[in-house]
Amino acid sequence: MTTETTSDKGGGGSGARGVTLEGVRVRFGGEAVLDEVELTLPPGVTVLLRGPNGAGKSTLLRAMAGLLPFDGEIKLFGARPRTLEGRAAFAFVADVPVLFEDLTVREHATFVSRAYDRPEAEEATLSWLERFELGPRLDEFPGTHSRGMRHKTALALALGAGPELLLLDEPFNTLDADARVTLAEALRQRATDGHVNLLSAHEQSLESDLGARVVEVRGGHVSALRG
Amino acid sequence: MFRRRVGRTYRWVGRTFGWSTILYLLFWIALFVVGGVQSAAPLATPLPAAALPTALDALALLALASVALQRTPPVVMGRAHAQLLGLAPWPAARVLRPRLVGYFISRVLVGGVVGTAVWLLVSILFALSAPALVALGATLWLLRSALATLVYERNRAAWPLLAAVSLLAAAGVASGPLGYDQGAAATFGAAVAAGAFAVLSVTITLSGQRDAYPAGYLYDATMVSEFRSAVFFAVMTQNAGALRRRGPLARSRRRRGRRAGRARLRLPAPPAQYGALGGVAWRSALSLLRAPLLMKLALLGALGYIYATLSAGVVGGLPLAVLGIAAGFLASWLLGPTIEPMPLPVDPFARGGGRVLPGVVAAGVLFAALAIAGVNRGGSVSGSEAALLAFALLALATVTLEKASSWLHVSHREWTTWGLSGLLSGTILWILSALGGPGAIALGALGLAFFALLMLP
User: CA nearest A103 in B: which residue?
Assistant: First the structure.
């Protein structure tokens, strides 16, 4: 079972200014992969989801992104994940990044900024792509890129869109050393700006590198937020 | 390239079996077949002709039911296919096309042989001559192979399609509308159409899969690759050679791969104030612009044909419904790409409008140009009426397809999706044509399309 509800560090109500999960349960074929998850994430935190393979970390992130059906309630800054407001509140980067194979990297920046209706996101994304050293590859289709490069593109799109909540599934796994430093800096800055970052990861060092708090996921149950 | 492959195959067959052995076997097989056919005589008391449809039904259903057992890839692939599917940015349809074409041709031949054998049996047992069974056999085998391919690809459409085809086959053979006992021209026309339809469905399914290959092909290609060469490292070594500009595999494929990897055609980005609608429409327009030239020409020809048919006065009843179904197919090429599975905050109107508008507007411009140029086949409708009706027909079919594919979460290039939306559009047009003339049909269709775009999720 679960769980714990943290107090709201940022003040204000928990629902509208943070992320809340109440009694969330996800089943695959009748079996509960996540069971009665209760969690509250206040603004301005980076939270690491820890746990063995198959514990339910990715499932939790996908449910929060509205990509899996679930019982219970998830509120992302006051909105449900599948509503337009909910979708505008977060960006999700899966462990195998999803990109549009018919668009070049530069066109991704344009398209995603229009989809989020944030014109400034295009420049921001291009700037993140430069920082991830993808500047010379902007006019290429991501289908020709390595997994690491695709991951960088997806991360740049998510960071550039500047949502209040960032859901990242094992984002450091395929990155080179420089990109890991860049991403860590970005996540720290986002938390300072009052945004929420929720990511799954296995590296022990990330807790201190990111100044992150930790949630243990094990056997479908979610532990207390600590750190 | 082709000559080299033929030469290599010729030498391999010669080394492995020996051409003299093969010729010797072929000679005796031909002798036995000719002897068997010549000695075949009808039964003194033929079986009742009424039993023939049932027997043919059973045979057809048995052949179709065997599709359920399909577990192996329809085509054998090797190292090069594994590389092209897994490591290069080639669409699955392009990688598999040569093998699939060979596969389907061989199935037609096998089906033809089976049909000939059945024809022979029918003439002996029932004392009936049914040469059309050759064409029916070839078509049935082709259909069976196309369905087996869809089953292997784990295509969701495969099972309902199999059920539908089985029912049609049962009904068709039982009632004998194709004239299996006469070899009528209709039989061959229907056979060719059904075969082409089956093959087209497989091709379209694969064409829509640029980013998500049917996984089985890649796994099986890799397995075959490993079994065949027993040196998977050879794949990697060759690939490394390709990257270092060496190796026999490298040069042409690397060049083509690089070309495929960069955008050649671009469109300026839409102004930011158009938001998500502008963004989705821009992407749809890009997709149309970057479609293969041959496809664009075929699309133009098909759109022109629709206009010409309408201007010839075909503006009502069943023919209009059939045009609606055809428009469903054209809509699958006119509709922009989906935004799934990325969870973007795009509302249904922006998504639908953005995907539909560029293709439909382009078609509208073409129809208007044809009307202004005075193209008219002398029917009872004017050029402008034909253009308006063609535009409305396309708009309705494209909107219906967008809604169907979004609702079902199935690609609009899947033939089941466009088939379904085409049927729906055709039915709507049929009903509308009973209520009024071309103007009323066009207005009704446009109104319904706009309503669906605005109100449906």
Answer: B283
